[in-house]
Write a structure and sequence with these properties.
19 helices; 558 residues; 5-stranded mixed β-sheet; single chain; mainly alpha; globular
């Protein structure tokens, strides 16, 4: 007699939680958009570099695929060259990540769709790195968004292959959509190749669930074909330019033939333990306490896989779409230094897994709180930190949410917090400030330089300085990068026709050098005459470009 009302209440509660999930997605998007529109953050080096790439659209680029440049080019073509227009795709990508996470959770756990979506969106909003990626336009936000979309489409296709038969047209459409999502992810970041490997492992492990092997082979073939077509621009461009991306990746690993001179490479084993320790500790910084819950939830689902055979396929799918990228970078950390945010894409499915593991613990905690509140006053103390009942899962979950909220607040208020006495020095804003001031100093140096025809060319020591000058200088001029000629890594500027320093048109021109010391320029491969420093504070020098020396640069300490 009570089953119908009970089911009705649960259904109503589930719809309420679904609406909350939608509201939270909208709220997170609006807050991130407000930060982009109102914050005085300048473009970071990578943002400026990708914008500069977008002015020279190509099949691919030196260190990355074309995805980020094409994305920025579309946004700036519609909205102009303003900072918010450059960063708008990051905000939209962050929203897509939240939607895909909620969609995947609802498909994997259909018995409580609204609750699954709500807790997944909460978990994703508890990750500070995702907030940062959704504000600054680097490869991270669109890469994670396309990865999350690919995971959702992969599970949708798997459900079709293991469910009732569907038409070949519908199956081909789903497989094509998955191939496009995987291809888009690859065009943003090459480690997207790890996701197809994880999906293939899942199919092999659960091949007994498939209804028809021919239909599965057909879907895999379509997905592989579309994905391969998407990757062609990268391979065509690299084949045309002697595979510079391969040399770049080898340089990251400190291998011979890479784009880092071996004499200046810090590889060799001495720093390996610290690289790995820093990588693991960094996950607590960029993901927060939720990373611990991800680990616990993963271990728990693996341990209970035989007892929970109904949901084990979902859990296995989420594990194989999340942990391989973390494990890949863990292995790489034995060879080189790893940035903590590099495996960020894996958090999409692991957030779903952690939220599902948290739900029963939180439900049990709420029941204990309700029972405790029903006791007559004075109620006995039942918690660790507060009087009401608490549990380890509940405290960890709430700590994760608090960590994410604090991260978003700090992100939005950092420029003003940095102005407080005694605090500003602890807020590292140098990467998102100073570009305009440097551009003004270069403009003054150009005015103080005797007029020449053509006007002086600008050469920066690093790609970040070159990119930021290109953006903040009036009329967005072409700025060259000399990093490969001063003993550092090569850059994309070595491949652009208007910035290559081996262009004979440079010979005889006056140049303005930005970012290096006199000693650095004197010992570089640039043959410079009449070299003199004109601004010590900003390290701006002027000279006449004679040409390039043949000998490689000697290793120089910064």
């Amino acid at each position: 007699m009570h089953d119908a009302p009970s089911l009705s209440c649960r259904s109503s509660r589930d719809r309420t939680l679904a609406r909350r999930a939608i509201s939270l997605i909208i709220a997170a998007t609006l807050v991130r958009l407000a930060i982009v529109l109102l914050s005085p953050f300048e473009l970071a080096s990578d943002e400026a570099q990708y914008w500069d790439w977008s002015r020279r659209l190509d099949l691919s680029y030196y260190s990355k695929g074309p995805g980020v440049a094409w994305t920025i080019a579309i946004s700036t073509a519609i909205f102009g060259e303003s900072q918010w227009a450059i960063r708008l795709p990051a905000v939209l990508s962050g929203t897509i990540t939240l939607i895909c996470g909620a969609w995947l959770a609802m498909m994997c756990f259909p018995n409580a769709r609204g609750k699954s979506a709500w807790f997944t969106v909460l978990a994703l909003c508890a990750i500070p790195a995702l907030h940062g990626a959704s504000v600054f336009m680097t490869i991270d936000a669109p890469y994670v968004a396309s990865w999350g979309l690919a995971c959702a489409l992969a599970w949708r296709l798997w459900s079709t292959l293991t469910g009732e038969s569907s038409s070949p047209g519908s199956l081909a459409l789903q497989a094509s959509a998955l191939g496009l999502a995987l291809g888009a992810s690859f065009l943003y970041k090459y480690t997207a190749l790890i996701l197809p490997a994880g999906l293939l492992c899942f199919v092999l492990f659960r091949r007994g669930d498939l209804r028809s092997l021919p239909r599965t082979a057909f879907a895999v073939a379509i997905t592989t074909f579309v994905f391969a077509i998407c990757t062609l621009p990268v391979f065509i461009w690299n084949a045309q330019h002697d595979w510079p991306t391969v040399h770049h990746l080898m340089g990251h690993l400190g291998m011979a033939g890479g784009d880092v001179p071996i004499a200046t490479n810090t590889s060799g084993g001495k720093q390996i333990p610290w690289w790995t320790i820093e990588y693991l500790a960094g996950q607590l910084g960029v993901v927060g306490p939720l990373f611990v819950l991800m680990v616990i939830a993963s271990m728990s689902t693996i341990r209970k896989r035989r007892a929970d055979v109904v949901q084990w396929p979902q859990h296995l799918f989420l594990l194989l779409c999340g942990w391989p990228v973390f494990i890949f970078y863990l292995v790489i950390s034995f060879f080189t230094d790893i940035e903590a945010n590099w495996p960020m894409a894996g958090v999409v499915t692991l957030a779903v897994l952690a939220s599902q593991a948290a739900i029963p613990h939180l439900d049990l905690w709420r029941e204990r709180v309700i029972a405790w509140r029903a006791l007559p006053a004075p109620r006995p103390r039942a918690g660790f930190l507060v009087a009401r009942p608490e549990s380890l899962w509940q405290m960890a979950w709430h700590a994760s949410i608090g960590f994410g909220v604090a991260g978003l607040i700090i992100l939005g208020t950092a420029p003003w917090i940095a102005q407080l006495p005694g605090i500003g020095k602890y807020i590292p804003l140098s990467r998102v400030s100073g570009g305009g001031d440097l551009a003004s100093a270069v403009t003054i140096a150009m005015r103080d330089t005797p007029p020449t025809s053509p006007p002086p060319r600008i050469i920066a020591k690093t790609y970040g300085t070159a990119a930021r000058l290109a953006y903040y200088l009036t009329h967005h001029p072409s700025v060259s990068c000399a990093s490969a000629f001063v003993g550092d890594r090569a850059s994309g500027y070595d491949h652009f026709a208007d910035t290559r320093l081996d262009d004979p048109a440079f010979i005889g021109q006056n140049v303005i050098l930005v970012g290096g010391s006199m000693r650095k320029w004197q010992r570089s491969r640039l043959d410079l005459a009449d070299l003199r420093m004109v601004d010590e504070n900003h390290r701006i020098a002027i000279a006449r470009f004679v040409g390039l020396r043949d000998q490689p640069p000697e290793p120089i300490s910064p």
